[in-house]
């Protein structure tokens, strides 16, 4: 919702190509990171439900924990890369277009 509001507001302030140029490089990393973080967040409750449904003998196995940690670390790494892109690369890309349409 916040991103949609920002795009709507900024599209009246800057050109669409510049808006894409300023958001796409950052979003390439952040959107998958958010999706992966969501998957990691559902991993443990999913395994608990499977255990309660009788489809597993133990609540969490070492493999389940490894998968959770791997998903979490991948998400964190992607967020850090997205932050790096936003701080160091996006400002450099912004000089290619003027702020007016």
């Amino acid at each position: 919702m916040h991103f949609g509001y920002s795009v709507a507001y900024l599209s009246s302030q800057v050109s669409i190509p510049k808006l894409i140029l300023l958001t796409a490089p950052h979003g390439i990393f952040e959107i998958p990171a958010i999706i992966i973080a969501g998957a990691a967040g559902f991993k443990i409750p999913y395994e608990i439900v499977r255990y309660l449904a009788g489809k597993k003998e133990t609540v969490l196995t070492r493999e389940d924990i490894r998968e959770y940690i791997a998903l979490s670390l991948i998400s964190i790494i992607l967020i850090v890369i997205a932050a790096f892109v936003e701080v160091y690369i996006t400002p450099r890309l912004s000089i290619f277009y003027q702020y007016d349409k």
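Residues 24-96 form one domain. The mean pLDDT is 88.
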